[in-house]
Amino acid sequence: MTKSLSKNVSALLLSITLLSSVLYAPFGVGTAHAEGTTTPQPDPAVISEQPLPPVPVSTPTPTPTPTPTLTPVPVPVPVPVPVPVPVPVPVPVPVPVPTIVPELSTNVLSTASIHISGPTATRIGESFDLNVSLSGAAQDTTAGKFIFQYNSSSFEYIRAASSSGVSIVGENNEPGKVTLVAADQSGAFASGRTVVTLTFKAKAKSDVNGISASVELGQASNGTVQQTAENSIALQYASTIPGDLNGNMIIDVGDLAVLIKYFGIGSDNPNWSKVANADFNKNNVIDISDLAALGKLVLYDNGQPFKLLEADIMGIQNAIAAGKLTSVELVQMYLDRIAAYDKQGPSINSIISINPDALTIAANLDKELQEKGPRGLLHGIPIIVKDNYDTLGMPTSAGCTCLKDNNSVSDAYMVQKLKDAGAIILAKANLSEFAINTDTNSSLGGQTKNPYDLTKNPGGSSGGTGAALASNFGVGGLGTDTGGSIRIPSSYNSVVGIRPTIGLTSRDGIIPLALSQDVGGPMTRTVADAAIMLDVVSGYDSNDIATAASVGQTPVSYTKYLDKNGLKGARIGVITDSGVTGNNTEVKALLSKSVQDMQAQGATVVEVSIPNISTILSYGSLSGYEFKFNLNDYLSNSRMVDTTKLPYHSLTDIINSGTDFLQSLKTTLNTRNGIASLETQEYKDILLYRTRITQQSLLKVMADNKLDALLYPSTSGPTGSSTGSANRLSPFSGFPSISVPAGFVASGTPIGIELLGRPYAEGTLIKLAYSYEQATHKRVMPTSVPDLPVHVVPAP
Description:
It is built from 21 helices and 25 strands. Residues 1-106, 230-239 and 791-796 have low confidence and may be disordered. 48% of the residues are buried. The protein has an eleven-stranded mixed sheet with strand order 13-15-14-18-20-19-24-25-23-21-22, with helices on both faces. Strands 1-12-3-4-9-6 form a six-stranded mixed sheet. The protein has a six-stranded mixed sheet with strand order 2-11-10-5-8-7. It is elongated and about 100 Å long. A hairpin with a 3-residue loop joins strand 16 (441-442) and strand 17. By secondary structure, it is of the alpha/beta class.
């Protein structure tokens, strides 16, 4: 505000403050119209009024102020309803006014009306604007005191902004009430233009009828203060429910039909106003993401209840946004399924421990969502974590009874990232003890079953996570992979698993098997959910130097690679070496079918052979060398474990207990404990030559054939048979790979296919896997864990 404006309004504002102290009643509701269009003038509520009695003063009595006339509007004016003449109220003896004031300010009833334009309804966490304008204000109105009252349990006031030529010179914000004093020398008050815009955030799914307003107006000519009369305020709510294109105040297929008609247009198109309300990503173009967003809204705004089975992250978030679900309800649904099916019924036995605070955390996240909005796509999403990730508030055992009381003193880096994103660690999953084998059997957790065939194991070592997700015990999960421990159980449980490039995700806080090969990654039921989780858990961690290589290698979001047409124009090499593909006829038939499916989506698939494949596969895993040393370092690290409370501080201590571990591992543990040093030529040669020959061979075949990825079965046989050697290519090279469901063998158990790419090419793999997944939809949930009856969710 300029200095001259400050001087002009200062005396007037003081006069307003002294003469205006009455709160006025709420107002009625007017006609709705579309936000962003010219605000139509409503039929004003015309009030019959009598001139106020003249006020006796020591100077000659002035002529009574005439009733202000209403500015004509281009709509029919209803016949005024006569209002009884008010009974005169005795007027107290006035205080004499100094002669330097030429005229007296007088409170008079005004025919001016206040108009509010805003959304008809809101969604939880959604911010919205209310545009405030006036009609019927006198031409010389230059100041106003606006009082807005609202339900503070439904709305949170954010801010107020004035229009051009209007200045907010005073603001008072109280719970449920905002008072603004505004000055205007531009004529906005009298012209009907927007005066101020208020921004609120919805704490609950609601309409905005609970927001009311009143105003006192000051005239520059004589300092008269006008107040709007009760019931004279016309509210105008705009139809701004995002996606409501047909104006019926709900989201339905009619809206989708309109959006499809104008698909691809931009904000420069003459028809933009017809669909601008469905530009969900605000990029000024109606694109595929807008169609997808509206499509999901059609599901949830059209009366369909939320369905838990096979629910994905975006579906859950849309259900929460539509007011059909809370995180507390979601957590309870998964807890009910775990109670019904993990230790009872089919007894999947995939869970070692449940977070005792899960419901409380969910309730806090629900409250935070209402008050502040979501942290991101994982806000309130229940996640199942393999029990070799350090997790505050829960023991971290690696499946061994020897570590059943290992209450870590910090979160693993990836777990902390999940919590920061608003995810709920719902449970810790069983695993092959110390992640050594591929059967998911441990001394603490017992044997986990495959939900597709209860007589077989789910693969491993992350089989607890895989079986839990296949059984719909959680939304997503974390696994670890040293030789195949994410991709094998992903294949056997018809879920998606990503083994990232070594260095993309931190290993800090994970009980190690072999740090030269270890990596943690997401396991989910869909490729999209895996991409969402990878966004959160990847990144540089100063406590894991390997992650320094990932700086500058990650995209803004892996979700940008979720392209249904991602296979079009891609070049993929399907490996023909029997050491990789195996000889199982059913698995090879599924691989052949996946090739056909990819070709049908526009990919070029060529047969390739990996140079030096026999030499590569002749090497073993370095877990046989590194396990003892890596485990001993973890057990002595006070930043991760409470060394004063652990009964064992080395692998030797655990073996010497005699019984406090899985007895079938006794020989393996003794052999690995017998490795005296890593300063041997044998170990260094494997670490150097195996890595080099694997990387060079893979890169050469990809370069020679101009390939985006290599393709092969995730496992060479179905569950219960050999997993094969294909899973070694990714850990031996450090390159990323993804396993995606490819169908089922005759016995009814699933098989996955695996795509391998160049370092940090996770985005490309996600694009190819997503396109294949969306074209084939091979995942089918197991019948051993059906839906449960709906019940009332208890309070946490």
